[in-house]
Amino acid sequence: MAPLQMVDLKRQYLKIKPQIDAAIANVIDTTAFINGPDVKLFAQELQDYLQVKHVIPCANGTDAIQIALMALGLKPGDEVITPSFTYIATVEVVALLGLKPVFVEVDEATFTMTPESLKAAITPETKAIIPVHLYGQSAAMKEILDIAAEHNIPVIEDTAQAIGGTYTFPDGTKKMNGTMGAIGTTSFFPSKNLGCYGDGGAIFTNDDVLAEKLYMIANHGQKVKYYHDMVGCNSRLDTIQAAILRIKLRELDGYCDTRRAVADYYDNAFANHANIITPKRASYSHHVYHQYTLQLDNVNRDKVQEKLTERGIPSMIYYPVPSHKQKMFDGMDVEQVELATTDYLNKRVISLPIHTEMTEEEMQFITRNFIEVVNELTAN
Ligand SMILES: *Cc1c(COP(=O)(O)O)cnc(C)c1O
């Protein structure tokens, strides 16, 4: 068995190598490196896939959130509600723009923003809400959208970890993650479910006015070349990355299915173990398992990781420090919040390898050893 990795991009590449190599060669051959035809074609294909009116490609998933916030025309000091239990990018751009992050709690079982804590955090200063579809699972969008609508606050969905996943509303309507709020954002970082071979990102919206603004902000505030109507930034998706993404988008549903199959295997293997709590699948969410993140109960997590490493099994903690406790917010106008569930989860979560190329042998090896290690550490 080859060394285990959290994500195996090499094996994935080898399966689509001829198409990828040809697509890259074609971009180089035509030297259409910036805003080449593949960028527009990819945006159109992603629009069709997501059933959304506009896709604006950009340089990465962090820029995507930044540009989304800029398009809402917020003023310094406006409050933006986000979970603390997320990758730092979600929160960092809020602070970068001089806006005030207001951290709210996540659900203990689904790891996503709770409607109750969102409701409690809303003030007259709240000007945006950013739910995160963490680990590949949709946030509780019906409740979040209802609360947002009641206060007329736009929702930006951070879909960096959940592209390809869907949310089902109580009336049975199904929507792709990232297409329910005013704006959706995603990342094409190589390890994401739809990853390119470098950096990339995109912004989605069904709103024509917002779409134009988003496009302009990502392109130096211009609609017509050299005429700059607003302060924007320079955030483009490279043509080479777009060409790669066109090929990988065709594989995305298959990639999501294989990730779900790994999660099924793990769930079965760990079912009913007293110290292993498998991730919950919310009934409204088609979970696409960007991560397989479980909780350890009454086991020393550091020791588990140590013993897994000895056995050649990688594991990760996403994320070791919650956003509201990061030093970057020291001295900043961030409310001192108590987030008991976030702190609790931060000490309990551990993520196991999950990717599109896992073999039965690898899954068997990982689950057998994981259970052995947990049993050893809880034996007395
Ligand atoms: C990866 C990620 C981002 C940022 O994406 P980049 O392309 O790395 O900038 C934002 N939010 C979440 C939840 C992510 O996982």
TrEMBL record:
Q: Where N6-(pyridoxal phosphate)lysine occurs along the chain?
A: K192
Residues at the catalytic site: K192
Cell inner membrane as a keyword?
no
UniProt entry keywords in alphabetical sequence: Aminotransferase, Pyridoxal phosphate, Transferase
Is Secreted one of the keywords?
no
The record's annotation in Gene3D superfamilies points to:
Aspartate Aminotransferase, domain 1, Type I PLP-dependent aspartate aminotransferase-like (Major domain)
Task: Note one Pfam family from the annotation.
Answer: DegT_DnrJ_EryC1
GO MF annotation, one? transaminase activity
Gene Ontology terms describing biological process: polysaccharide biosynthetic process
Q: Which family does it belong to?
A: Belongs to the DegT/DnrJ/EryC1 family.
Protein name per Swiss-Prot or TrEMBL: DegT/DnrJ/EryC1/StrS family aminotransferase
Q: Organism, per UniProt?
A: Taibaiella lutea
